[in-house]
Amino acid sequence: MKADAAAIRALARKPRPDIRLYLIFGTDDGGNAALAGELIAGFGKGIERTDLDGSQLSRDPSLLPAEAASMSLFGDTRYIRVTTSGEESLAAVEALLAADKAVNPVVMLASAISEKSRIAKTALAASNAFAVQTKLPGPDDMARIVVDLGREAGLTIEPDLAHVIAGFTAADRRLAAQEIEKLSLYLDASPQDPKAVTREAITALRADAEDDAMQPIISAALSGDLRRLPEELKRMREQAVSEVGLVIVMQRQVMQLAAAAQRMGSARDIGGWVTQEMRSRRLWGGGSAQDWTRQLRAWGRPQHMARLIERLLALQQAMMRATPGPALLLEQELLEIARVAARAS
Question: What's the rounded Cα separation, in Å, for the pair 166 and 26?
Fold first, then answer.
């Protein structure tokens, strides 16, 4: 069944025992996590959690219904949290929804899929599942979220400064919440003793200095700029930029790119659309207008975007296991992504 954020929040207050699967998907990764957190809070304090991922379920689809049907060691209920990147969990979802018994709810996070994916269609058509789709908030929406987060932490944030925070956190609610928490501590603010956020305080605490160093590398790769990328990779080595950190920042950029592609629709004049969006402050980061245009030409189709997200997730996992280090693996993948983008743009 189709749901929205309000329905999920209502379920957090009063969970429904007949719902086996809560599928939270879409481009707002931070929003997905926040909704999942609200939902899980409604399951009760101290409830046991079992974590599964898409690769496990692709190898053994029966694992999901089996875990959903089994009681914990002490007979308590628990919930299953699944993170999946694509259709590899489809068979497991179908088995769960068709199973004779399921006592433990499943919360599935799938940022890389769309409403056209088979998993989403399966959950939307099922009477014992809820599916909610999120979209990455635009600059104005994200600025309002920043203002609300600040108010809860005892901070008064003017709209122009809220846009600044929204920009350097790349519309990621979790990162924005972290920055708000740091500002609250820095200014010694609380709801009982509110303080106004200043530009000086933001400058003093900005945690994106390394992100700024990463952005030119990311822009060159996603834009397919094969002449610029080797120089950026050289600079990355000289400045000892965090390789895993770069992939995480790149994933945020791709999520913003996916949201932009969705808003753009079938517009033919991509360059003109990008120029208008940048003037309206609906696009930020990601390089120049030329970079945005090339990136949308290369990755604007849903299937291309989904494949790129899957590759970046796989790259991050491989780099965590790489020995002696992930640098070579990262450089090879960035070059391959740039080659693909160059051919497509």
Answer: 19
Give tens-digit pLDDT for 237-261: 877 777 877 888 888 888 888 888 8
Decide if 205 contacts 183 (C-beta within 8 A): yes
Query: Which is it for strands 129-134 and 2-3: parallel, antiparallel or unpaired?
Result: parallel
Asked if residue 57 lies in contact with residue 84, where contact means CB atoms within 8 angstroms, the answer is yes
Q: Is the dihedral of CA 208, 214, 216, 220 positive or negative?
A: negative
pLDDT tens per residue across span 264-291: 888 888 989 999 888 877 776 667 889 9
What is the secondary structure of 22-84 as a DSSP string? Answer: EEEEES-HHHHHHHHHHHHHTT-TT-EEEEEEHHHHHH-TTHHHHHHHPPPTTS--EEEEEE-
CA angle 81, 84, 90 (to 5 degrees): 100
Task: Kindly give the residue spans of alpha helices, DSSP state H, lying in 265-322.
Answer: 270-279, 289-299, 302-321
User: What is d(CA 41, CA 336) in angstroms, rounded to the nearest whole number?
Assistant: 42
* CA–CA dist 215, 321 (Å, integer): 24
